[in-house]
Amino acid sequence: MHCHFTSPRWQASELPGGHGHLCGIAWRGAARLGPADLGELVDPAVDPGRWRARLADLNGFHALVRHDASALVAAVDRIRSIPLYYGVADGRLYLSDDADWVRRQVGEETMSEAACTDFALAGYVTGRDTLYRRVKQLLAGEALVARDTDTGLSISLERYYRFSHAEVPGRGDAERQAALGEVTEAAFRRLVEVADGRQIVVPLSGGHDSRLVATMLARLDYPRVLTYAYGHRGNREAEVSREVAARLGLAWTFVEYSETAWQAVAATRAYWDYQQWASGWHSIANMQDWLAVKRLTERGEVESGALFVPGHCCVTGFVPPALFAAERESRTLAAGELAEALRDRHFVLRQGEGSQACFHDQVLPRLAGSYPLDEALSADAFLQAFVLFGWQERQAKFIVNTVRSFEYFGHDWWMPLYDREFMAFWQHVPLRWLDGRQAYVAFVDREFAAVSGIDTPLGNAAQQSRRSLRARLTRLAAFRRGPGARVKRAVKRLVPGLARGNTLASGGRFPPETLERLRARGYSHNGVAAQLFLERFS
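Below the sequence we write its predicted structure tokens.
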């Protein structure tokens, strides 16, 4: 068994008969663990049932490995914030935080066609697979156990945690709201302890998640906070971001995005090196923060050792409305509705009949082994499966993977809205609390009003931007090809607001002819990014 760790965040310790390795921070109760504590936490020589619950009790963001001469346990946290990859060749196990190192050890040169289909439609590869057939990834809340036996290498996978929904009855809304306030404050006090006086840097969008982060830091009177926004100058999200920071008394800065700025960095080797490294061969790199972190670092506004705190959050806002209607009417959802809901939410980087056929013919058979796609489901069962997919796939592999951009420029990070206790609270709320995130939004608005002293809700600027007339018109297929595309170009010359494109000016990341060709074929911007990644690295 061979281990290879590349991140400087790994700590190592000698254990009786072996070694312990810990990356990140792990708490068990109030005790912060070190690599020397892994001997009491997990033991590859005994039944995993004896230590599985201890892994589930951990808080923080971490990956851990304990091994001796003949056995190994490796685990990622409940959101897989620090990925681990593995592969087997010639009876040997290779384990690393570097997917490409594993690929080279197992001698894999050709990408899997099935995995490329996932990647092109969703932006990530589902399940334990990566783009390379013999390079695997641990899922969120999972541990790998490997043993050298008389008959050869034995590997098993132990799922110690799943983010599932099960309402706890007998609690009123007032009691739940009070409990939400308590777990939120506890999560942010843990953040303050981790920060330990360092500068905290908050990507402050126009939405509610990062607003809650900023609000809680202001409420706890943390002394060194920098918030920032980015995009084209004058965008609505940045305006709301600046207003939120001003009302909370927090420092704020802005990084201007333009197609020209993206074109300049897209021509550099670092741009592609980052994407290949951050992808882990399983996901497109989430690039929207990368340019801002680069600029802030170069400008010296982010201090050495700073802690970035994004608003990534476990409270989903993407549950299909049909589920809530079924719950109110006490009826089941028909067989096949879960498959369509997953497609409509997650496999949308390419549109059109060909993409739908590709999903049904190639993706669904792979998902059918893990999800009840051909069954009529109650509202609760439907929610369980839908939320499980969103947490295990999109959140853990794409959204949370944004933290790689902070690491790439030498910074630290923390995600308080994925705190263990905060997640546990939202696993047990009534279904109606998840309808449009209404209960969560109301909580954030109340907290913000209490700290800022201003009661007028600011809404969700990101959502408003997506629903604007300009955004809707520019997404229409009729404006992506032929005469419609020519009309759009003419209008952009006459109307400066349209010429700026989307808030992130991300069209500048791609060659203009390639962007227009792929957009005309139904690719989203992330779809274009996925396609160009596959073309470059396959």
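The longest strand covers residues 18-28.
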